[in-house]
Write a structure and sequence with these properties.
The chain has 150 residues and is mainly alpha-helical. The protein contains nine helices and two strands. The longest helix has 22 residues.
Length: 150
Amino acid sequence: MESISERLERENIRLASFDKRLFAHLIDDVIISALFFVIYYDAFKNAAGDLQTMIAVISSFIWQLVLLKVLYHTFFVWRYGASLGKIVMGIMVLDGEILDFPSLPKALIRACVRIISEWCFYLGFIWMLGNAAKQSWHDKLSGTIVCENK
C-alpha cells in the first residue's frame, strides 16, 4: 500500500510549512475573535472598564466561541478546502486518500479535534513537527493533509 508521502510525491504535491500553518492559524484566530466580538458586542460594551466583568462575560460565552470555531473551520475546509487564513497563506487541506477537499464529516472531525488540540496546550499542532506527512492530531484523526496550493 502506498504511503501518503509516496502519493504526494507521485502527484507533485508539497506539504505546507509549519510557518505558513502558524500564520494561517493566527489569521483565523483574529477573524474568529473579531466576529465573536461583533456578535456579542452589547455584552462586551456593558462590561467595558471592569476586568472581572469582562472575564465573566467571556467565560459565559465560551461554548458559543467553541461552536463558532467549529462551524468556521468545518464550513471553509469542507467548501473551499481552506480557512480564510489558509487561503491568504496559499495553503489548503486535502483528504489524504483522494487528494481532494475533505468531506463534510472529515471537515467536522478535523474542526472538533482542532479544538481539543488547542485545549491541550497546542500539543496537537506541534505533533506535526515529528512526522513525515506533517500531520497534526486533527489531520491524523480526520485523514487530512495540509499542502501548498496546486
